[in-house]
Amino acid sequence: MKHSFLTFWLVIGFLLSYQWSNAQIAADSLLPVRGFCIGSPKPDRVDEFVQFIEKELAPRQVNTLILRVDFNYEFKSHPELRDSIALSRREVKRMVNACQKNHIRLIPQINLLGHQSWASKITNLLRVYPQFDETPHVKMPEKYQWPNADGLYCKSYCPLHPDVHKVVFELVDEICDVFEADAFHAGMDEVFYIGDDKCPRCSGRDKAELFAGEVKTIRDHLAQNGRTLWIWGDRLLDGKTTGLGMWEASMNTTHRAVDLIPKDVMICDWHYERPDQTPVYFAMKGLRVMTCPWRMPKNAVLQLQDMVKYRATATKAMKDRFHGMIQTVWSDAGSFLDEYYGRKKADDSENTASNCFRALYAEIGKTVSN
């Protein structure tokens, strides 16, 4: 009797595992990357975020989690760059273990090149190492407004400063090691300050070559340890010719870098207000690309349908360059969880990151099952 009971449960376990495996194979064929990108949680929200991974991401067959860490970690290589409240190694390992258990690839992000300030505040790198600032003559305002006379959105570090990469690569290596990551996301979106006329190193240089050079420098460093570089794609699109403008594309000529960067760099192509079909452009340039919605459920569903169509109708050479979908959340994990579980109401009841996530993955589930 005991043997029969044990056999019964072994068979049930095998069947469930077989069903999960088949579902995984079908989902991987449809979309190799099914991602979720969010700001890393503060230490007091790690437990809840781990539950979110296990109860919300894993059941939806999310297989890639990008965590925007920046300085929210107790770096040993550069403790001077830590946030005042930051994740410990033990807290990171709890998220790593949850992802590994659920077959989710975990990719950390630190913003490199751009996004070295926000609003009226300089972030940790340039605050501690002001010599890395591409535009030290641009002073931070007491009250930030856009547009402004300085064209200030976010500060950048100077990619040609002789000491900057030693510092940032020590951060990158440490965060990749603790996350046990085989890839790293460098951000690199919305870079408005590059090749400034007053920079003693960058003045007069081609902005596309500067941007491509920084991409290649980061990519080559990661490749030494078998890691892949991921970046946002907006600086590689021509904002003027396409009409996409200065936010979702480049108006300062960095778009020509698309022909200069290594072809193994992964492109996260974000469009939030319109479901523009720029993944085709990146794929035709020989780059692998993921489409990244944010807060508009209808757009996310259309973008998913486009991605599925690209993979179904592309040539054999192009098909696997269309790599999938990544839901982006532009807050820290705690704020998102408060919205997701109804503890905080959003200004717009329909167009929210949580609604977009639900709609996108519901459509992925339907498409896989069909």
UniProtKB/TrEMBL annotation:
Residues 86-331 form the Glycoside hydrolase family 20 catalytic domain. Its EC number is 3.2.1.52. GO terms for molecular function: beta-N-acetylhexosaminidase activity. GO terms for biological process: carbohydrate metabolic process; glycosaminoglycan metabolic process. It comes from the Bacteria. Keywords: Hydrolase. It catalyses: Hydrolysis of terminal non-reducing N-acetyl-D-hexosamine residues in N-acetyl-beta-D-hexosaminides. One of its GO terms (cellular component) is membrane. Belongs to the glycosyl hydrolase 20 family. PANTHER family: BETA-HEXOSAMINIDASE, BETA-N-ACETYLHEXOSAMINIDASE. This is beta-N-acetylhexosaminidase.
